[in-house]
TrEMBL record:
Listed SUPFAM superfamilies: Isochorismatase-like hydrolases
Top-level taxonomic group: Bacteria
InterPro entries in UniProt: Isochorismatase-like_dom, Isochorismatase-like_hydrls, Isochorismatase-like_sf
Organism field: Pseudomonas lalucatii
Chloroplast listed as a keyword: no
Ranges for domain Isochorismatase-like: 12-182
One Pfam family cited in the UniProt record for this chain: Isochorismatase
Official protein name in the record: Cysteine hydrolase
Statement: the UniProt record of this protein carries the keyword Hydrolase: yes
GO function terms (MF aspect): hydrolase activity
Keyword annotations from UniProtKB, A to Z: Hydrolase
């Protein structure tokens, strides 16, 4: 009789990217106005099950940045702030894996699946999801729990926040991650 593997794979870790006070101060049109509410619901869901939670904080090297050390903007948004039993990693580039120890922390705990939420869709969310996939993690990005801002494209044409977000999700879908809605994870 073949021996069955009784080890249950650990649940996905929830990675919350750059949900800091300074991101609220950006006075530019954005998409997904309910993203913080959805992130809070996912965080509560993970906490209730004691699944792994990881908070990523951007710490800028530029002294005049709202995300510079010691600035109020570098602090976590209070409703999404980590608890003492939750992991916190700091980054100063877009990718949460670069120079942070995140990959090792996940491997040591046997975590092979990630659920990524946060800001900005085409920036830190996309960069982190791409690296996660390239490092072999099963990666999901929660489209309605991520957001970004309107910006000019490379050709100088204005793009809405929704267009920028949708392109970031398109870049990730199937190639680097499974893009899902928060309801799929909360049901």
């Amino acid at each position: 009789m073949p021996q069955q593997n009784s080890r249950v794979p650990p649940p996905s870790a929830l990675l919350i990217i750059d949900m800091q006070q300074g991101i609220r101060d950006l006075d530019r049109p954005r998409n997904n106005p309910q993203a913080e509410t959805r992130i809070a619901a996912l965080l509560a869901h993970w906490r209730a099950r004691n699944w792994p939670r990881v908070h990523i904080r951007h710490v800028s090297r530029a002294p005049d940045s709202v995300f510079a050390p010691g600035q109020a903007g570098a602090l976590f948004q209070p409703e999404l702030a980590p608890r003492p039993d939750e992991a916190v990693f700091e980054k100063n580039v877009t990718d949460a894996f670069t120079h942070s120890g995140l990959e090792r922390w996940l491997h040591v705990r046997g975590i092979g699946q990630l659920v990524i939420v946060g800001v900005a869709s085409e920036n830190s969310v996309e960069a982190t999801a791409r690296s996660a996939s390239n490092l072999g993690f099963i990666t999901r990005v929660v489209a309605d729990a991520c957001y970004t801002f309107a910006k000019l494209d490379y050709g100088g044409r204005p793009r809405s926040a929704e267009e920028v977000h949708d392109m970031a999700m398109a870049n990730l879908q199937a190639e680097y991650a499974e893009v899902v809605a928060s309801t799929a994870l909360l049901d």
